[in-house]
Amino acid sequence: MKQLTGWIIYNGSLKAEKFLDYAEWVQNAARRRRIETTLIKNSELVVTIENGKSTIKGRYEGLSPDFVLFADKDIRLAKQLEKLNIPLFNSAQSVENCDDKTLMYQVLADNQLPIPKTILAPLRFFPVEDEDAAYYHGMAEELGYPFIMKEAFGSFGQQVYYIDSFETFFQKVKQIGTTPFVIQQLIQSSYGKDIRLNVVGDRVVASMLRQSPSDFRANVSAGATMYPYEPTKEEIELAIKCSKVVGTDFAGIDLLFGENDERYVCEVNSNAHIQNIFDCTGINVADAIIEYIEGKLKR
Ligand SMILES: Nc1ncnc2c1ncn2[C@@H]1O[C@H](COP(=O)(O)OP(=O)(O)O)[C@@H](O)[C@H]1O
Ligand SMILES: [Mg+2]
Question: Which ligand has its closest atom nearest to the C-alpha of 256?
């Protein structure tokens, strides 16, 4: 059987090592299964529409890998590649569903998955001013303080805020300008604590409990400690369902602990990093991802 070839696309504008690290991890996993891959920055592929046709120009023009592992969030590029009939993992639609948290919560809710009560901010063409305060007062009253505010686009807990008063809220709203955001019921029983489950296909391949000593956010980059975790049957089923409904082939699912031992979906990450979970559990999710892609393509 012919050897598979793949592209691993990552974002060229992100200078942090961890993005290239991720791409290299996946490349090494592919190499272990004798799959040759090329690491490509999104900015090296020139998305062109010419004579009414979608193409890719530049260095990689005319080449067609067997698959793309899309480790970027450049949704326009992802859609262009799909127009060229290149199988993408994850698909453009699923990356889009996860990238925008407002869209993600709508998709989860459409499928009756449990999320904390969430309110979407109205579209703003200009940053809010003092005269807009009444609307935001009303919005906050719908939840009561304290609550969680999240910018629609963000990771590592960096665009997630704990709001305990109107002053803090309104200042944040002003500060983020026209960025879309949601406010969300604080799951107090999960303060500083969540579980991360890595789903690949229809399996949970690794899980960990994350607990922060001081912060409400359980992101490892915000200082949380990781513990290996044995998920329950319910948690496994919930995580797999989340991945299915947003359409990801693989994902990192964050679950929160409700007061009566129920679980809430905090978020679905189509571009979950895999280094931390490896450090915690010794499980290399990249191996599972590559085996999954291979299985899909050879079928
Ligand atoms: N509604 C909530 N109640 C309690 N904690 C929350 C809530 N939403 C988020 N968190 C905490 O904040 C962290 C970051 O939020 P998340 O939505 O996962 O954003 P990010 O994409 O930045 O990781 C979560 O891991 C969780 O610990
Ligand atoms: Mg998260």
Answer: 1
